[in-house]
Design a protein that fits this description.
heterodimer; A: 73 residues; mainly alpha; B: alpha+beta; Alpha-Beta Plaits; 2 domains; 4-stranded antiparallel sheet; 10 helices; 23% strand
Chain lengths: 73, 267
């Protein structure tokens, strides 16, 4: 299995270009990377932002495929 | 006049992509920012913030609340932000900003650079010469205990229950072994890396993976020690057949911008 080659995942070599997976990107740009709080997004920083966005993701993916379990009462 | 609705904000905010020590004009030339607007440099206190203009009608606080719920919008924003951060990290060292960091104007950005100069410079120094790699580990379902299954075949309710219990036990045992293997793999990679942390495992509905993720690690690796990291990942793959390991990267150091004091999973 070619799982261990540290191949570039972006624009180092245009011939080898593979877009990064959205879910991997969101792990990083939402859950981490905060050092500076902008004065406009102050209120939705940190946990709120992550929760809102992941809810959007799950809802969108769930709309494509039926959920594995019925909604809990 | 009944103007009870929030007025839609007009004007333009400043979306922060990241902070660097310096940026050459060639890196920014042709680089598109968050709203199709050009990435540009805002210098201050010996540092450079790389920003792009963001219309408040779409990127103001109220609009962001709404738009972050929209997967298509979220993906476009994440990729536009990442494109700039990625370009910066390939030409130097960058402290990436989290998605949706918007300031009112350049003066506010400059003030932040001034106020947080020491912290930002310290982070830049810590990240220099290093890059982030991800290693995800997925459960490899083990073979069920064949002998037990055969013993329970063909039968009575008691045999069914016995067989069912054996299956459940095997599954729990498999998950326990996978969790232990994930911890061992993470410890080995963290021991090699300059810094490490574990993200929450991805939901299978998001990852699309056929089996559960048990490790979602991020590792800050010295660029001149990348070969050894790849060798270690290969060794760990051989040592832990109960896991399927999948490296991703290189990433800008998104996972390593918080100070060590704010990093419970540090190394």
């Amino acid at each position: 299995m070619g799982v261990t080659s540290l191949a570039p995942s972006s624009a180092d070599d245009p011939l080898d270009y593979r877009p990064v997976a959205l879910v991997d990107l969101l792990d990083r740009v939402l859950a981490t990377g905060v050092v500076i709080t902008g004065d406009i997004t102050l209120a939705i920083a940190d946990v709120d932002l992550v929760r809102i966005s992941l809810r959007a993701l799950v809802a969108s993916v769930g709309a494509l495929a039926p959920p594995p379990l019925a909604v809990q009462p | 006049m009944s103007t009870t609705a929030e007025p839609v904000p007009t004007g333009t905010g400043v979306w922060l992509h990241g902070v660097t020590a310096e940026v050459v004009p060639a890196t920014l030339a042709g680089l598109t920012g968050i709203a199709g607007t050009p990435a540009r440099a805002v210098p201050g206190a010996g540092l450079v913030a790389v920003v792009s203009d963001a219309p408040l009608a779409e990127y103001g606080e109220e609009a962001l609340r709404r738009n972050l719920e929209d997967l298509g919008w979220l993906e476009r924003a994440a990729r536009a932000h990442h494109a700039v951060v990625d370009a910066l990290s390939r030409s130097g060292t960058v402290v990436p900003a989290r998605l949706a960091t918007v300031h009112r104007d350049d003066d506010r950005v400059t003030r932040v650079l001034r106020e947080r100069r020491d912290e930002l410079a310290g982070t830049l120094a810590r990240l220099t010469g290093r890059e982030e790699w991800g290693v995800k580990g997925y459960l490899v379902p083990g073979a069920p205990p064949r002998a037990e299954e055969r013993a329970g075949e063909g039968g009575s309710g008691a045999a069914y229950l016995r067989r069912r219990r054996a299956q459940l036990t095997a599954r729990e045992e498999g998950q326990r072994l996978a969790a232990e293997a994930a911890a061992a793999v993470h410890a080995a990679l963290a021991g090699y890396a300059a810094a490490a942390r574990r993200h929450a495992p991805q939901d299978r509905r998001l990852s699309g993976a056929p089996t559960a993720m048990v490790l979602n690690g991020a590792y800050l690796v010295d660029r001149d020690r990348l070969d050894g990291f790849a060798v270690l990942v290969r060794e760990l793959t051989g040592r832990h057949p109960e896991l399927r390991l999948e490296p991703t990267g290189p990433w800008p150091p998104y996972s390593f911008v918080a100070g060590p004091e704010a990093e419970p999973a540090w190394a």
